Amino acid sequence: MAHTTGTAIAEPSTDAAAQARPERSERAERPARARGQFAAFWAEFSQSKLAVAGLVLFLAIAVLAVLAPWVAPQNPYDLAQLDIGDSQLPPLAHAAMSHHVYWLGTDDQGRDMLSAILYGMRTSLYVSVACTVLAIIVGVALGLFGAFHGRAVDAFIMRLADIQLSFPSILIALVFIAAFGKGVDKIIYALVLVQWAVYARTARGSALVELRKEYVEAARCLKLSDTRILFRHVLPNCVPPLLVVATVQMATTISLEATLSFLGLGLPITEPSLGLLISNGYNYLLSGSYWISVFPGVALLVLMLCLNLMADRLRDVLNPRLKK
Questions:
Q1: Interatomic CA distance for residues 263 and 83, integer angstroms
Q2: Would you put residue 267 in left (φ > 0), alpha (ψ -120 to 50) or beta?
Q3: E-strand spans in 44-162?
Q4: Average pLDDT of the chain?
Q5: How many CA atoms lie within 13 A of 85 on its CB side?
Q6: 49-323 — its CATH code?
Q7: Which pLDDT tens digit goes with each residue over 155-165?
Q8: Which residues contact 312 (CB under 8 A, 6 or more apart)?
Q9: CA–CA separation, 136 vs 133, rounded Å?
Q10: Of 156, 173, 256, 161, nearest to 203 (Cα)?
Q11: How many CA atoms lie within 13 A of 186 on its CB side?
Q12: For the chain, which residues make up each domain, given as ranges?
C-alpha cells in the first residue's frame, strides 16, 4: 500500500517535468535561432561594399565622438586652453606658443577645429539618438494603438499625423523653440514633435497587415490581453520597416538640428553642434579662412552619407518583395 501511494504521488511530477521539457528546449533554441537569423542578415547586408563602408565609418565616427573628451587634442570650450593669438590659423599650422599642430586649423577664437568637430559630432549624435528613441516610442505606441482599435481612434490619430506632416518640419521646430526657448532638451522635444508621425504611420501600416494574419486570431482565441498581442506578437513583425525608417530619420534629425543651430535657434554656444560650427565660420567663408566652415560641413556630409548608405541597404535586405 505504501508503495502504491508513492507511485501515485510521483506520476504528477513526471507529467509536469514532461510538459516543462519542451518549454526549456524552446527557450534554449531561441539564442541559436537569433544567431542564425543575424548571420543570414549580415551575409546579405555585407554583399554591398558601400553599405559596409558606411557602417564601419559611422561606427568609427560614433566612437570618436563618444570619446571626444579623451581623444580630442583640446577642449575647445575651456577658455583656459585657448590662445587668441592662434586664431584663424590654416590647417597644419603650429601653435604660436607651443609645438602643437592644428591639423584642421583654428577658428576666430583660437579653437582647434579638429577638437571642435569631434565635440560637435558628439552633440549632434546625442541629439539624433535621443530624438529617434523618443519618437519611436511615441509614434509606434500610437500607431499600434490606432491599428488595433480602428475606426474612431485610428481616424483621430491618423488625421493628427496628417496635419502634422502637412507642415514643413523646420517650421514646426521653429515654432516650438520660439515658444519654449533654446537648449538640448527643448530641441529634442521639438524634433520628437516633428518626427513621431512618420513612425506612427509606418507602425500602423505594418500592424494592419499583421492583424489580418492567423496567429493574431489564435492569440485572441487564447484570451491573451491586447497589450500582449500588440507588443509581444505584432510589434516584432513590424520591426524591419521601422528599422529602415529610423536610420533615414536619424540623418534627417541631424540635418534639422544643424539647420536650427545654423540659424542660431538650436543649441546654445556652450553645447555646440556641427551646425553651430558651420554658422560660426560662415562670415569667414569668402575671406580666405574657408576651413572654419568647410570642415564641419564635410563632417556633417559624411555623417549623413553613412546613415543613408546603411538605410538604403537595410531597405533592400529587409524588403520581402525583393526576395520573391
A1: 27
A2: beta
A3: 93-94, 101-102
A4: 84
A5: 5
A6: 1.10.3720.10
A7: 999 999 999 99
A8: 51
A9: 5
A10: 161
A11: 19
A12: 1-45, 49-323
The answer to whether the CB of 322 falls within 8 A of the CB of 143 is: no
DSSP 98: S
CB 121 within 8 A of CB 71: no
Q: What would you measure as the largest C-alpha separation in the chain, in angstroms?
A: 105
**What CA–CA distance (Å, rounded) separates 135 from 156?**
19
**Other CB atoms within 10 A of residue 285 CB:** 15
Grid coordinates standing for 248? 533615414
How does DSSP assign 252-289, residue by residue?
Answer: HHHHHHHHHHHTT-SS-TTS--HHHHHHHHHTTTTTT-
Grid cell listed for 20: 516543462
- Of the candidates 278, 284, 85, the one whose C-alpha atom is nearest the C-alpha of residue 94 is 85
Other CB atoms within a 10 A radius of the CB of residue 41 amount to: 14
Single pTM value for the model: 0.84
Q: Which of 200, 300, 294, 203 is nearest to 253 (CA)?
A: 300
3-state SS, residue 73: coil
pLDDT tens-digit profile of 89-101? 889 888 877 778 8
Task: Specify the amino acid at residue 147.
Answer: A
Q: Phi then psi for 244, rounded to 5 degrees?
A: -65, -45
Closest CA to 141 of 160, 165, 120, 157: 157
State which amino acid sits at residue 258.
A
Helices (H), 150-183: 151-165, 169-180
Among residues 139, 171, 167, 121, the alpha carbon closest in space to that of 307 is found at 121
Locate 231 and state its grid cell.
507588443
Reduced 3-state DSSP string for 206-219? HHHHHHCCHHHHHH
CA-based Rg of the chain, rounded to a whole angstrom?
Answer: 27
CA distance 323 to 44: 11
